[in-house]
Design a protein that fits this description.
mainly alpha; about 55% helix; globular
C-alpha cells in the first residue's frame, strides 16, 4: 500500500505515513490510506497528491478532509506551477506584525 501511495505522489506518501505513525497501531490507518488511494479514480493522481499535501499542512488525517479539499478545489493551490500558493493579501487578515 505504501508503494502505491509513493507511486501516486509524494503528498500521498507523506499523508499515509503520517496516518500510520499517528495511530496507536499502524494497521488502524490502512482503511484511511485505501480511501485516499480510491479517490485517484475520480480526481486523478495530481489532484489527490495536491490535496494530500494541503492536508499534511493542516494535519487533518481523515479521508473526509481530503474529499472536501478536492470537492471545493482547494487542492489547486498546491498543484505544480500554481500561482495560488502565495499567501493571501487582504486588509482583514492579520499578519505577524499584529499586536493587541
Amino acid at each position: 500500500m505504501l508503494a502505491q501511495a509513493t507511486k501516486t505522489g509524494p503528498g500521498v506518501a507523506a499523508f499515509c505515513e503520517m496516518v500510520r505513525t499517528d495511530r496507536p497501531h499502524p494497521e488502524q490507518g490502512f482503511r484511511t490510506c485505501l480511501g485516499v488511494l480510491s479517490l485517484v479514480k475520480t480526481y486523478g493522481p495530481e489532484r489527490v497528491d495536491a490535496a494530500c499535501q494541503r492536508d499534511v499542512t493542516i494535519r487533518a488525517r481523515i479521508v473526509t478532509s481530503i474529499r472536501s479539499i478536492l470537492k471545493t478545489g482547494l487542492d489547486h493551490a498546491f498543484l505544480e506551477g500554481s500561482e495560488e500558493a502565495a499567501p493571501l493579501q487582504h486588509a482583514n487578515i492579520r499578519g505577524g506584525g499584529y499586536y493587541h
